[in-house]
Fold these 4 entries.
Entry 1:
Amino acid sequence: DVVMTQSPLSLPVTLGQPASISCRSSQSLVHSDGSTYLHWFLQRPGQSPRRLIYKVSNRDSGVPDRFSGSGSGTDFTLKISRVEAEDVGVYYCMQGTHWPWTFGQGTKVEIK
Amino acid sequence: EVQLVESGGDLVQPGGSLRLSCAASGFTFSNYWMSWVRRTLGKGLEWVANIKTDGSERYYVDSLKGRFTISRDNAKNSLYLQMNSLTAEDTAVYYCVIDDRGAPYWGQGTLVTVSS
């Protein structure tokens, strides 16, 4: 199985400041169809996960533009340009290129 | 509006069985692969199984093969997960998701607790 490794696992942030989460995969996530199925999710306390970014850098509908995704191959990053209170929760990267789809361990973002 | 509503979660004894259901609405169910994903305390989020649009292909995480069976009824817009020989490690919140090699929509989840 593809192992997804996130860092850091805990991220205390100051409101209004930027934040960045790294995700590395144990093998390339480029599919034979040319797409890279690397996505980012946020799970707020008491809620189901919500997808924020799909295929590396595309924001899902309704996701604020302070969220951005980048990367290629095995190395990916989620950035929040200015953290807001509603951004608190656990962030997961996930790959859908190689079955079984797998998630990272999660990064807990909290306000300092 | 896409809605996925899971049900069937319960407290069950080790070795027992349970069947989860997911009622889908707000999209053409028969056009989408569907999956079950679970969140455990120990392993975090884990993809369990997925099933093709017409049910002709099903894939499982290796560790669950033989114990869990995913199925669907397109006439009823419903997804199912039959779980047998349950152990404490299966204790989790189980989510029904649309599977486009990602998971754009999730249900609210149903809690399965395996304990004596």
Entry 2:
Amino acid sequence: DVKVTQSSRYLVKRTGEKVFLECVQDMDHENMFWYRQDPGLGLRLIYFSYDVKMKEKGDIPEGYSVSREKKERFSLILESASTNQTSMYLCATGRSRMNTEAFFGQGTRLTVV
Amino acid sequence: GNSVTQMEGPVTLSEEAFLTINCTYTATGYPSLFWYVQYPGEGLQLLLKATKADDKGSNKGFEATYRKETTSFHLEKGSVQVSDSAVYFCALSGSSNTGKLIFGQGTTLQVKP
């Protein structure tokens, strides 16, 4: 079975903190994605990666960065958390650029106070 | 650019009622189309997909047909159950082989006994 694991289900952080969200996959997929989900806005792509040490900006990268040092792990970093980054964060993987079916983790609900 | 529009929710139905959730898209080229479902407290999971015009995707009693002439991919089920209560997302892949998905805003379905 495909497994995408996000390190936390719920997080509460203070404004200005540096926040790390971790995602690990066990399917040897090339692609990994970070989305945020907000009511009425659906899912919006923050960053994605096609390979180790490669990253590309999505639609809303401001205030975020990512790291992919190993194929199975994709980290989302909030350099200085702000209240408008309170959201549900979803990690997803895909086999390759040619295959667009995505597999999702269970999500991390982040609250910035 | 590419985009997906879903009917606004929430949709509230009685058990065994007929379900339709409308989805229309704007895209260049020939995207693949998807429906994802998100049960409470979980990440998204693929419900069904269609990769070319006139294809019908189906799973768990749900169906959707890729209509290029109307740029639509409406989700239908003949008889809903309480367990179908969830958020449903329509999505498309770009035809540029990036592996990225573009999501609609999601439609919440509540089925009452």
Entry 3:
Amino acid sequence: DADVTQTPRNRITKTGKRIMLECSQTKGHDRMYWYRQDPGLGLRLIYYSFDVKDINKGEISDGYSVSRQAQAKFSLSLESAIPNQTALYFCATSDYRGNTIYFGEGSWLTVV
Amino acid sequence: GIQVEQSPPDLILQEGANSTLRCNFSDSVNNLQWFHQNPWGQLINLFYIPSGTKQNGRLSATTVATERYSLLYISSSQTTDSGVYFCAVGPGGFKTIFGAGTRLFVKA
């Protein structure tokens, strides 16, 4: 089984709908992240969390919210999806030093 | 902020060929990682290499921190090496900055 698991792996949703992407990890790491990747581009940080009570906005947090339900679980929500949020979303974890980042398999989201 | 430039942006190889991918960064860093994104989108961490040289099978990486660059070597390339290779630098964790990647296609 993967160390970082994302669900769903693929989702098509309509504009204006709320959608949640879920992430769970078995690495035992405190730090968790949500990234977005657009075609031909690198990864951009949406939100990051140092622990259950410490959540921070990243580079592109507008239109997104997150919830850290437990050390191992970090979910990303699009409150009212719009087409330019169509992208590949990654959850990731690292230890406190952040030297090595471990990514989930990715969630392909299409907003129509 | 730190700027990360990867070259070449695209690379096509014949199976069995060797290649070198480069990552330049604009400021001192204490964290540099190389990732491979396969054609299905999965991102795999290849190396954590803030300085020095590491090898893992047909892949090796060298970072010269004082000159602000890192190289990823792929020897005897295989079709399964295809995908996008990302360099990521920074203090680590949430401050990690990703380059735009090098897209590699290995022909059989």
Entry 4:
Amino acid sequence: NFMLTQPHSVSESPGKTVTISCTRSSGSIASNYVQWYQQRPGSAPTTVIYEDNQRPSGVPDRFSGSIDSSSNSASLTISGLKTEDEADYYCQSYDSSNRGVFGGGTKLTVL
Amino acid sequence: QLQLQESGPGLVKPSETLSLTCTVSGGSISSSSYYWGWIRQPPGKGLEWIGSIYYSGSTYYNPSLKSRVTISVDTSKNQFSLKLSSVTAADTAVYYCARDIEWANWFDPWGQGTLVTVSS
């Protein structure tokens, strides 16, 4: 089994760019797709990135995803921050024995 | 538009079995390439995948919960269900059902979630 490690919290000002990392403890980050979910208080998670770097329809192109094999990590980047982006963000991946491994979540504050 | 809705008791006693059902509307649970999954979130904490099922009945379970979990599917009702046995206070959580997209292990969309409290 592997773990996905995210920073507990990040903060940035409106209009700026923020990047949230997600580091895989074992196995290659490139071996299995990474998804990113946004969760606002009291709501269910929704997808902002799937298959490492794909955006569902309706998600603004301010959201982008990438993977870095050298650091064995995935990243979610949000540019042009808006107050409405304030939420918890979770990365998720899998392996042959575990279909759903989630990171611990990152609280994004836009101040 | 595909929608999922969880239902079941909001309060379960310790040592008993938690039972929830997820009703799928706007699409068929028998669609190929899709599993159907359960994920939970304890209050104030992160997400934990519980397990997923294919319409044929094939299942995958989180190794940490496998001994207590049973997921089943009823294609005639377009529903799938979760049973978690021998619950303790640590099983108190919001339980979500979601479509589990097979080729990417991507959970989308999610139901609104239902809070299950384990307490005597």
